[in-house]
Amino acid sequence: MDEPVDSKTVDPSSVDRFPKQKAFNLGDVVTDAAKILTEEERTKLEEQNKRLVTPFQALKLEQEARKHWDLFYKRNENRFFKDRHWTTREFSELLAGEDPAAAASSSPLAKPDNVERISVEKKLLEIGCGVGNLIFPLIEDGHRDYFIYACDLSPRAVELVQKHNLYDERYMKAFACDITTEEVFQTLPEASLDIVTLIFVLSAIHPEKFQSTVANIYRLLKPGGVVLFRDYGLYDMAQLRFKPGHKIAENFYMRQDGTRSYYFAEEEVSKLFCQTGFTVMVNSYIHRRTVNPKENIDVPRIFVQGKFLKPEQT
């Protein structure tokens, strides 16, 4: 159950810079304004600075990033993340038959179950596929217009994808790679993709590698191709909960299991993509409050969500 977010928690002084997402859930606040912190929240952020992750430890976390994600999937396998059936609702470009650069909200088109008849003219890449919580719901719901590529830093995650009963190399290919490097071009040529999804992935990458990651995505996309982006927003509940000893750098944290998380400002995301050559289609914060009285859950979340277009060649 979603309840309205108090508008007082959103900075009213911000001027709209780009078109915003529409609200997809009752109670969503969609804005380009950052959350206004309470005194208690400011104190929590200040407390985090009292003991930072040491430079030695931060370097080790970077060097062992693949190992930590492999261990994560060894422990959790496919039990941790829920299937993302919401993606076609909030990113209509993923619907069967939609034009990536001009998709509008619509109902999914019925597709035949015979996979031999699917069109593979268009290509989609999910970066950070995990165990397939995005790609397999697409297949289950009949959205087979794309040949799906799926990559992850963790070889163990890719192995779990390949063992899934819906995995079929007639219409998908999963592979391990570090998207921050040139490694992805060993599998995919430049200008070969129509859609790239980057959903809760960039936040797990060191901020110094954001630019190289987005630049690689730009090279992979065809002119007119689109990046579908969602990630953790600045001052999200999870950021405020970190204790001293977990902060690596500004808005960048270490979790207990050694994986890391960054919390994005909306303007920062737009700037990152624009500097690489993308055009901003939509980009905004989504303030969402999820309430479940039976389980005593009242969780305010903040995401940044956007769509970024590689312009057609002129």
TrEMBL record:
Top-rank taxon, per record: Eukaryota
Domain Methyltransferase type: from-to ranges: 125-227
EC annotation from Swiss-Prot or TrEMBL: 2.1.1.-
Keywords of this entry: Methyltransferase, Transferase
Swiss-Prot/TrEMBL GO biological process terms: methylation
Pfam families with a match to the protein in the record: Methyltransf_12
Role description: S-adenosyl-L-methionine-dependent methyltransferase.
Similarity comment text for this entry: Belongs to the methyltransferase superfamily. METL family.
Protein name: tRNA N(3)-methylcytidine methyltransferase
Organism for this UniProt entry: Anopheles gambiae (African malaria mosquito)
Lineage: Eukaryota, Metazoa, Ecdysozoa, Arthropoda, Hexapoda
